[in-house]
Amino acid sequence: MGADELSKSQIFIRRLSSSLLLWGLLLAGLFYKDRTIADGAFILLLALLVTSGLWEFFALAKFTGLSSHRTLGVIGGMALVGTVFYLSAKGSSRSSVAESEILILALMLISTTLWHLFRGEIGKGIQSISITFLGVLYVALLLGFFTKMRFYEGIKGEWFLLYFILITKASDTGAYLTGSLIGRHKMIPRISPGKTWEGFAGAIILSIIASALMKKYAGHHLIGMTWTHTIALGAGLGVTAVLGDLVESLFKREAGQKDSGHLFPGLGGILDVLDSLLLNAPIMYIYIRCVHP
């Protein structure tokens, strides 16, 4: 076996191992019969995603030349995700969850401001506090919608969450395959030279197909999702997934980095895994909250 073949084999094994770990935690967190184990797997996955995602975000900001309060940001993000999980799991009202999120963000504002007041570098205050908050909002607040979907009352939330993840990843796959095979016309080359309009079309088509397949074979779990919803939501999530990918590409382009991190071998950084999911999470939640009967 040559060095190149070995390298490809190693990349494949690492990618497979990382994917199995993440999908294993997710599926256990959604469908394991023992509630204690399921909740443990789900919160472990969330903790892994929020800590590594925030760490990578603040690292990208540093590469860009921007300062932040990394430790306070990670602590605040963990508190935000953990509180949403705790309150949602015990059946608290949506207004109570929202008020708790606002309270944690307010406490974060106070703590980061006071820290900078007494220990921060003069001339970096507004920048550091702003970047810290952007990271928490971008990673932790958006990840909180995963929990809100899972515990949404009146529906099988675990199935709607799985649907949202599969459709989003179908968009990623469609964009990559179509763009690689027939991509010619660049979308926004100044941000992501690899993204093409053909890939964009492929993302939408495959996400619609995946949505239709979920409706056909798991529709009895997705109660209330009509065929009109299925097609429209598949297309909408496909579009927003591409936009989420472009947003993170913008962050990496400004930081001069190819990947957001290296925590999961073969997959790049955790933000490379989450980028499309983060922007799609509130879109799916709006559907459940405002459109779904």
Textual characterization of the structure:
The protein has 2 domains: 151 residues, no CATH class; 138 residues, no CATH class. It is globular, with a radius of gyration of 20 Å. Helix 2 crosses helix 8, helix 4 packs antiparallel against helix 5 and helix 6 crosses helix 8. The N terminus is likely disordered. The longest helix is centred in the N-terminal third of the chain and has 30 residues. Helix content is 78%, strand content 0%. It has 9 helices and no strands. The chain is mainly α and 293 residues long.
What are the defining features of this structure?
293 residues; mainly alpha; 2 domains; 9 helices; 78% helix; disordered N terminus
